Amino acid sequence: MSAKLKQPGPGRVVATNVVCIPFSLVNTYMVANRDGSWVLVDAGLFYSTAKILRAADHWFRGTKPSAIVLTHGHFDHRGALKKLAAHWDAPVYAHEEEMPFLTGKEDYPAPDPTAGGGLMTLMSWMFPRRAIDISGRVQPLPANGSVPGMKEWRWIHTPGHTRGHVSFFHDKDKALIAGDAFVTVKQESLSAIISRKQQVHRPPAYFTPDWDAARRSVQELARLEPYNACTGHGIPMSGPHMLNQLQELARSFNQVAVPRHGRYVRKREQEIAAPDLQPAHAS
């Protein structure tokens, strides 16, 4: 652990060797190694550059990260990515299935302003979904599950919110950086965001196109029994209270998490109800 992490400054230590840099709508994280090297996890919104650089200067004396890793590439997790990667000349890593959205080849599915209720949901039609192109810097995470620059951490494929979404887990410390696989605030509600009420909650419904995959991802993360939950939205949570809420979300996901209405909910229902169109085999 870097001694610098023991000192107060921009952001706060939320798990062993993990600093959370909060913004109004999203969190970024800085993960330190014992040798003082570090990695940035996610890159916030477009205006996040200056605060992230100030935090790096405080916690790591202005040294550049060995890498920037992404849980996924939605606009609120990659907003300052181009500027930071260029400033630090740092490599960027994301899941193989997230590459089309980070190399200009494919836009994200459209947000769904009819799913989940709340003012943020109603506003979601305005949220950017266009791909960015950082082809010269981004590369896939290693297939062996290791995370470049994050010693003793591993990545876990947790699709649903996006098809290439990943979470990062430190087995020894039971620390989890979950991105938007689940969050700790009702992100669809602007009043919940303002009040910062802590609650283990589904991934933001307006930007989640695959609810079956999202359920499996939450269940997989709950089985890890994390002690710390460092999420993309909401104040990080820890301890038995957080774990109990996460396990309840995993058990009751279809009842409490899947929206009753919405574009991708209808698509899911149609796929479940569709008859088997494959020709029967002759006996």
From TrEMBL:
Residues 25-233 form the Metallo-beta-lactamase domain. Gene3D superfamilies: Ribonuclease Z/Hydroxyacylglutathione hydrolase-like. CDD domains: yflN-like_MBL-fold (cd07721). SUPFAM superfamilies: Metallo-hydrolase/oxidoreductase. PANTHER family: METALLO-BETA-LACTAMASE DOMAIN-CONTAINING, METALLO-BETA-LACTAMASE DOMAIN-CONTAINING PROTEIN. This is Beta-lactamase domain protein. It comes from Pedosphaera parvula (strain Ellin514).
